[in-house]
Design goal:
single chain, Porin, eight-stranded antiparallel beta barrel, alpha+beta, 9 strands, about 65% strand, about 200 residues
Amino acid sequence: MKKLLAIAFLTLAGSISLCAQTQPISKTEVDFSYSYFTAGEAAYTLDEIFGTIFTAGAAQYRNSRMSGAIGLEAYFRVASKLGVGFMGTAENFSADEYTVINCNETYDGRFNSGIFSFMPAVKFTYLSHPHFGMYVKGAAGVMFAASDSKYEYNDSAACFMFNVTPLGLEFGGKKLRGFYEINLGTKGLSTIGVKFAL
């Protein structure tokens, strides 16, 4: 019985200590990030595959390069753990274009596309301590794509875009922290970055 009471006391003391370390969340933060495996990368990979299929191999992309997404975010605290703000990303996709007819191929030039997104966003921080925190985020808005290609009918397009962050981890000091996120959407599956508290 004494051992059970001692375990219960230590657990309670640890919980009180953990709660006592809760870090007040700053009112404003600005985040800079780099992501890969983004929605834009997935879209252009599928476009490359289906473009080759639907043209019976006449239109081919080679030597493709995806830059990954550079992100900028800002959040303003409206409640103790809830922030609202915006999320913006920019990335680039490029590839060599070839036309192949009767085994004769012609180089048509370099295909380039810039992808930009801007979305209102919300962030909920459910764990905040002096050197570590955990959060979730959600955003929805618009994505713009501008491209130059022999096979593209439109030079630019806009569509709905979203981003969901089911897991965000941050670590560091009170004013400057690094972070890692798992995302689904415009920021990509894996994101690293740095955030500044103002």
